[in-house]
Amino acid sequence: MGKSRIVYRCTECGSATPKWGGRCGVCEAWNSLVEEAAVEPSLQPPTGPSSPAMPIGQVDAQFAQPHTTGIPELDRVLGGGLVPGSVTLLGGEPGIGKSTLLLQLLARWPQRTLYVSAEESAQQVRLRAERLDAVRPELWLLPETSLPHIVSTIDQIQPQLVVIDSIQTIADPALPSAPGSVVQVRGCAHRLVAEAKRRDLPVLMVGHVTKEGGLAGPRVLEHIVDTVLSFEGDRHHSLRLLRATKHRFGPTNELGVFAMEGEGLVGVPDASSLFLTDRRTGVPGSAITPTLEGQRPLLVEVQALTNKVHATGVPPRRSAQGLDGGRLALLLAVLERRARMMMGEFEVFASAVGGVRLTEPGADLALCLALVSALTERPLPPEVVVFGEVGLAGEVRQVAHAERRLAEAARMGFTRAIVPANSPRSTSGMALTRVNSVTEALVAAGLSGRSGS
Ligand code: TYD
Ligand code: MG
Description:
By secondary structure, this protein is an alpha/beta fold. The chain has helices spanning 72-78, 98-108, 122-131, 147-157, 182-199, 271-276, 325-339, 364-376, 402-411, 438-444, and strands spanning 6-10, 16-17, 33-37, 87-92, 113-117, 139-143, 161-165, 203-208, 227-232, 239-247, 255-261, 264-267, 286-293, 296-308, 318-321, 346-352, 384-386, 389-390, 396-397, 416-420, 431-435.
């Protein structure tokens, strides 16, 4: 072991500093510095195999071809599947479905696989596997937290795919730090990366993201692994979204959509219809927008509710779910100043339906129309979709991929779209109403300029 010099390590970004402070000087996270014994550089595990230099043309690219995972929504995000020797980190809040997804993946893999369960007992995993129809002869299970044991088991049973669930709960006794510390998490990850590269073995590791930051955050690991996937969703909804935030073997802008069902995660190839299933037409305060998640168009319903409050002196509530609260405040101000929609005495609630997060500005105009529709108690025409970015002057700005958005809306049976004035021509068959400003959009949607009439 190295000399016991002490450093303070940030659990968020992994940087070390000799002096303790309330805030990390590198990533500026608060209360993230924890004490640890410094490791001498000679003890740092190697980051990968050493190999000779060669002309780039002689490199065998064939070898880095992805192997399908048997789960189309996962393949979509990975750009085809898992590459031999690649290390993937799957991050997400506890209970979101990481273990479920990975067990389903292992069960479909054509060769021998190993599931290292460092959190749940073998019995628990077996019960879950039964539910998921994942009790297969080539799926091996190892309830273990010690890294050396895990590596020797890999040597012994020679799996072709390994899952570590989770990286925060395994530890290497050779490292001078407690399990779950940054040194352990990073040291174990380094070792697993080296083992993966040495054997051309794809490895997936689960990384918990906790709001409290009690465990070493997966951000520490982002630099070490090839791919970082994040699994998101609202635990109260069945919808789960999978995205790549880093991917060395392909694009990072694809979206995978799953629903958590009784028998595990089920891919949702037609996500738009999922989002629209519970939609009621003819109700005020609702607008449909075709949004783009990576390359994938999705139709999402934006809802708003306004409620007159009588209390004085207290600013009325503004609440945004699945939408950015700052964006909501900005659009409310634009509606007041540019379209004379007085919202000052109203509580405002706005949400993107179905547990999805709408972050792109293309959803601005739909939110504006949903707000005014709620305020005026007039529904939007049911056949209409809306998109466009709204500027501070109340102008409606063009957004990318208008044609793809329109094609998706047409596919879902919509016939008319309110779009930015300078959107390109469309072959989607949709009737386009081009608008320059929010006020023009209100007229186009049949919500006149005056409220409450
Ligand atoms: P899990 O995969 O354990 O989450 P994580 O590994 O990210 O912590 O999933 C936990 C939740 O998923 C749990 O609340 C129960 C639910 N679930 C289902 O709804 N259906 C299923 O078939 C399974 C296995 C779990
Ligand atoms: Mg789990």
